[in-house]
Specification:
Elements (H helix, E strand, L loop, with lengths): L7 E5 L5 H9 L4 E2 L22 H6 L10 E4 L10 H8 L4 E6 L2 H15 L7 H16 L16 H4 L2 H11 L5 E5 H6 L1 H11 L17 E3 L2 H8 L2 H9 L3 H8 E3 L7 H10 L1 H11 L23
Parallel strand pairs: 1-3, 1-4, 2-3, 4-5
Antiparallel strand pairs: 6-7
Helix pairs in contact: 7-14
Length: 310
């Protein structure tokens, strides 16, 4: 790899504040993140998300690194779910540091489903039936009627795997020293952004750059006309022409609106929480943090304002 090899990897998870972290940290004078947030160079098992497949292309993203940049980052958020990325990263950067952003996995999968509907990857706009479809794959695998255990790498829409945050963190800590791993909670980023930011700078051994403003990033939106969005998504040449004409932002403003709250039956909310109970308990143990409120039926699964800094 080149001289400007990343030494910080924001591994994920999606819809957990990673865009906010990338944005806030990326303006620090001693931090460099490329303009392309998620090259997924190391995640060979996510071919549809890899914008860089050669080291030459990947190194080109870091051509702007200056000697004053102490931290050189990669924010490819599906790396957390890759089977092959971590060994490759550690081979190139043995002393790399890692960030993982987390939230209630039940909220995460609801939000992620909405994102996949937005992007056109998910054809079923009903979270309940989409979730049931993916859980059925787990049951068939457990019963031995399908080959291998489904995961996000084998099926991008496999929502149950995205919520396995405890398992993913446990695996990372089994191969990387705890001193080189920092966990951020979305609820903290939303409620105490300045405090979270200072803790992050301390982890990275960076001085405070005085940031006081933490604006909403990546606020959730939805299509006004889903059928029209699918026409554009199925015709990449059309989207390319619109971008070349400089009309993409106008089209986005015209064809979308702020996302509305996703309504999920209470009984089903409890079912999703129960599904992730062991993962939440494991994450609580690994982070030494009380997370019992994530399992409480008093809190409604959220996919609206909770995404304001994702």
């Amino acid at each position: 790899m080149g001289l400007n090899q990343p030494n910080l990897f924001l591994l994920g998870a999606p819809k957990c504040g990673t865009t906010a972290i990338y944005t806030y940290l990326g303006t620090h004078p001693h931090v460099y993140f490329p303009a392309e947030k998620e090259p997924h160079f190391y995640a060979e098992d996510f071919p549809s998300h890899r914008s860089c497949t050669t080291s030459v292309d990947y190194n080109r993203l870091y051509a702007g690194v200056h000697p004053t940049h102490q931290i050189i980052g990669d924010a490819s958020i599906l790396t957390l779910y890759s089977r092959c990325a971590l060994p490759r990263i550690l081979a190139d950067s043995p002393q790399a540091r890692f960030l993982i952003a987390v939230r209630n996995p039940a909220d995460l999968v609801v939000s992620l489903h909405r994102q996949f509907v937005w992007s056109g990857r998910e054809r079923d706009s009903n979270f309940v039936t989409a979730w049931q479809r993916e859980v059925a794959l787990v049951h068939r695998s457990t019963a031995g009627s399908s080959k291998g255990s489904p995961d996000a790498a084998s099926s991008l829409l496999h929502y149950p795997d995205y919520g396995r945050l405890g398992t993913r963190l446990e695996h990372l800590l089994s191969v990387v020293d705890r001193s080189r791993v920092h966990v951020l909670f979305l609820e903290d980023i939303q409620m105490r952004p300045r405090e979270v930011y200072l803790q992050l700078l301390d982890f990275l051994e960076l001085t405070d750059d005085g940031r006081r403003e933490f604006p909403r990033i990546n606020e959730g939106r939805q299509h006004r006309w889903l059928w029209l969005s699918r026409i554009f998504q199925s015709r990449p040449w059309l989207m390319k022409s619109i971008k070349q004409l400089g009309l993409s932002e106008s089209l986005l403003a015209w064809g979308t609106r702020p996302a509305s709250r996703t309504t999920i039956p209470v009984k089903f909310q409890n079912e999703v929480r129960k599904y992730f109970e062991n993962e939440i308990v494991l994450l609580a143990e690994l982070t030494q943090r009380g997370l019992s409120h994530w399992l409480s039926s008093d809190s409604e699964l959220r996919s609206d304002t909770a995404d304001a800094v994702c």
